[in-house]
Specification:
two-stranded antiparallel ribbon; 8 strands; mainly alpha; 18 helices; 377 residues
């Protein structure tokens, strides 16, 4: 993702794009279901004890474990153990701060974190995650185990220029790094924003209850079922708009011949960027209520047309390849949780806190929950 040469980037993307296609991602639904069931077991213990739930922690465990399952059929064990194994998640937050700087000074990365001396000294961040990823990829090279996952898809593709072992490992690591904190932050944003808006919460729960009364829904909720819940999906899209996970502009480098944008010419090497928060809160695009969380905007006649202005996952040829993975996780986990539990903010008078570096990462808030009675799906 750090490649600034468009042709090189597109050439590499062609090698891996199929693994990110929805038709490939959907094959991992059973693995996501397993993670949801473990997540539910852990949350149920907390609910039974009547303690508050730190969703920032549990969503991070879920996101890491799922991206491991989807990429190489192996979780990192965060959900099962209920802890931050090897302080990987804590370390990942510091790594994100590093990336927020290197995204704009990428030429210095090779002499810093990418320096082989750092590896030799065993100083890499997220050691447990990186070692697990490396071990899983190496097992495939020896054909010891095959899984219905992205690694197997990439290895099985018959191409004139298949992924090298180094590219395979780099892509797997990028998958984990890009698909963990981002998904965790958006999961948090959805719950927090919905709970802050009682009418949204009521309509969302009514929609799920209606499906349950017609026996059209199961636990964990299946992706095709979640996709058919219009208000729920509108809440997810509005979360993407209202709380885009990226806190920094998306930088692009003008090519050799320069580029003309909106009547302005930018010469070669010019770094051009746009901030998703500025675009998503622009009243000229989203109306005078752009600073309000309103899922209904996506259910209006012009709702579909508005989607072209969403850049939560980037835009153009640099659109995030993992967007289907992220949306599938949000759709399945959130619908399953709101189907089974009634949530409320543990401290409604206190707003959450956010850490802003490369990502806008929420923290410092918790919820209370109780099981819906009766719960029959």
């Amino acid at each position: 993702m750090s490649e600034v040469n468009a042709q090189k980037f597109l050439t590499f993307q062609k090698k891996i794009a199929g693994g990110y296609a929805l038709s490939s991602v959907i094959k991992a639904e059973a693995e996501i279901d397993q993670a949801i069931e473990i997540f539910d077991q852990q949350i149920d213990k907390i609910v039974t004890s009547e303690r508050s739930i730190e969703l920032d922690t549990w969503f991070a465990y879920f996101a890491f474990d799922v991206v491991g399952q989807i990429t190489f059929s192996q979780s990192f064990g965060f959900l099962e153990q209920g802890s931050d194994v090897g302080n990987c998640i804590k370390t990942s937050h510091r790594l994100v701060s590093y990336l927020s700087i290197m995204a704009h000074f990428y030429q210095y990365h090779d002499i810093l974190m990418s320096n082989p001396f750092i590896t030799w000294l065993d100083l890499q961040p997220m050691k447990h995650v990186m070692n697990t990823t490396k071990r899983a990829v190496h097992e495939r090279e020896k054909n010891e185990r095959a899984g219905n996952d992205m690694i197997e898809y990439w290895r099985s593709q018959k191409r004139s220029e298949p992924l090298t072992a180094r590219e395979l490992l780099a892509t797997a690591n990028a998958n984990v790094a890009a698909g963990s904190d981002t998904v965790s932050s958006e999961l948090q944003a959805f719950v927090y924003l919905v709970l802050r808006n009682p009418e949204c919460l009521r309509r969302l729960c009514d929609e799920l209850a209606a499906e349950a009364s017609r026996n059209n829904i199961s636990f964990p909720v299946q992706y095709d079922t979640a996709q058919k819940l219009p208000y729920f999906q509108a809440c997810i899209v509005e979360t993407y708009r209202f709380h885009p996970v990226s806190a920094t502009p998306y930088p692009r480098v003008a090519p050799r011949e320069g580029v003309l944008i909106a009547g302005h010419f930018f010469p070669e090497g010019t770094v051009i960027s746009v901030n998703p928060w500025a675009i998503h809160r622009n009243p000229d695009i989203f109306g005078e209520d752009a600073d309000c969380f309103k899922p209904d905007r996506w259910l209006r006649p012009n709702g579909k047309a508005l989607e072209k202005n969403l850049i939560a996952f980037g835009a153009g040829y640099m659109t995030c390849p993992g967007r289907h993975i992220a949306h599938m996780q949000l759709s399945k986990l959130l619908s399953s949780l709101f189907l089974k539990y009634d949530f409320e903010l543990a401290n409604p008078e206190r707003e959450w806190q956010t850490s802003r570096s490369f990502l806008v990462r929420p923290f410092g808030w918790s919820v209370k929950a109780k099981r819906r009675q009766p719960f029959q799906v």
